[in-house]
């Protein structure tokens, strides 16, 4: 759709500024964080590892011989709301890898999960009150649950490989020793990532990095990447316009109004990177 392409052009300069910002350099600690009970989480990492500040979030990192552990705390409720709506991606790129070679998106985002319902994504963006209609409320609740129960994975070896994420249930990833957990109070969130270092028969999803290596770790919320797809042509399930019997037009004025609404809704794209030197057992 024309106004989605225009929106991408408007936000592109923000992405350029973010990608050109200075990179934080971090030394990982060599330890295995504690977990408790049957629920995986990395709460203990916040008590043992260095606290690394990035714009709107704090993260902690450690590794052992098999996993990289990353704990992310959101410091901004608005930024966390964007992550809940449009997904939060952790990238891990080895020293010889292309940028965004390995990525895990968790939560996947309400908007992504609404793609399972015809017209819901467009209605969710276009209509601020879309979720308040009874016909849509249960759909949004189901999308929120799916966003927490699934993750998206990207694995690339070349810049020519598409940034095409593949969905996986958390249980399937856990069986491959990739573990994720979200603590969520709807205002702030804490996300735990345990990522296998190497691809093995028991860990098929891994960035193939080693202790002692310096890797690039990225944090991203990018609604524009989600919008860069063929949007369904069906109408939203129900909006204030359709409920009142109004019809839509495709004139330039409406496009500008929609773009302004989307910019307010999505906020600025978020991208921060750090160089992390993985610890070795002798450290």
Question: Overview of this structure, please?
Answer:
The structure is a single chain. With 283 residues, the chain is of the alpha+beta class. 31% of the residues lie in helices and 26% in strands.
Summary, kept brief:
This protein is α+β, with helices and mostly antiparallel strands and 283 residues long. The protein is built from ten helices and 13 strands.
Biggest sheet, spatial arrangement of strands? 1-13-12-6-7-8-9
Helix content: 25-40%
Total count of helical runs of at least 4 residues: 10
Main sheet attributes: strand count, strand direction, barrel closure: 7 strands, mixed
Give descriptors for this structure.
283 residues, alpha+beta, seven-stranded mixed beta sheet, 10 helices, 13 strands, globular
List the topology elements.
Elements: H1 2-19, E1 24-27, E2 29-30, H2 45-48, E3 52-54, E4 57-63, E5 67-74, H3 77-86, E6 89-93, E7 102-105, H4 110-113, H5 120-126, H6 134-149, E8 150-155, E9 166-169, H7 170-175, E10 179-184, E11 189-196, E12 214-221, H8 223-227, H9 240-243, H10 252-266, E13 270-277
Parallel strand pairs: 1-13, 2-4
Antiparallel strand pairs: 3-4, 4-5, 5-11, 6-7, 6-12, 7-8, 8-9, 10-11, 12-13
């Amino acid at each position: 759709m024309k106004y989605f392409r225009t929106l991408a052009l408007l936000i592109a300069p923000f992405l350029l500024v973010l990608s050109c910002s200075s990179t934080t350099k971090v030394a990982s600690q060599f330890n295995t964080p504690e977990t408790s009970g049957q629920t995986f989480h990395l709460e203990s990492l916040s008590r043992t590892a260095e606290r690394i500040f990035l714009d709107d979030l704090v993260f902690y990192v450690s590794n052992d011989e098999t996993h990289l552990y990353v704990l992310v705390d959101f410091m901004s409720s608005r930024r966390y709301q964007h992550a809940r709506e449009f997904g939060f991606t952790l990238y891990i790129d080895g020293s010889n890898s292309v940028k965004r070679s390995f990525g895990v998106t968790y939560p996947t985002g309400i908007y992504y999960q609404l793609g399972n319902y015809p017209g819901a994504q467009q209605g969710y963006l276009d209509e601020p009150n879309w979720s308040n209609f009874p016909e849509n409320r249960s759909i949004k609740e189901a999308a929120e649950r799916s966003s927490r129960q699934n993750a998206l994975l990207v694995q690339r070896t070349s810049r020519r490989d598409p940034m095409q994420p593949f969905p996986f249930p958390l249980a399937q990833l856990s069986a491959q020793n990739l573990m994720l957990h979200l603590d969520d109070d709807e205002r702030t969130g804490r996300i735990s990532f345990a990522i296998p270092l190497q691809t093995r028969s028991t860990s098929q999803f891994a960035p193939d990095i080693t202790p002692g290596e310096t890797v690039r770790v990225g944090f991203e919320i990018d609604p524009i990447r989600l919008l860069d797809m063929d949007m369904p042509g069906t109408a939203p399930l129900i909006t204030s316009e359709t409920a009142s019997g109004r019809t839509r037009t495709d004139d330039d004025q409406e496009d500008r109004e929609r773009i302004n609404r989307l910019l307010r809704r999505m906020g600025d794209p978020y991208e921060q990177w750090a160089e992390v030197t993985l610890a070795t057992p002798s450290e």
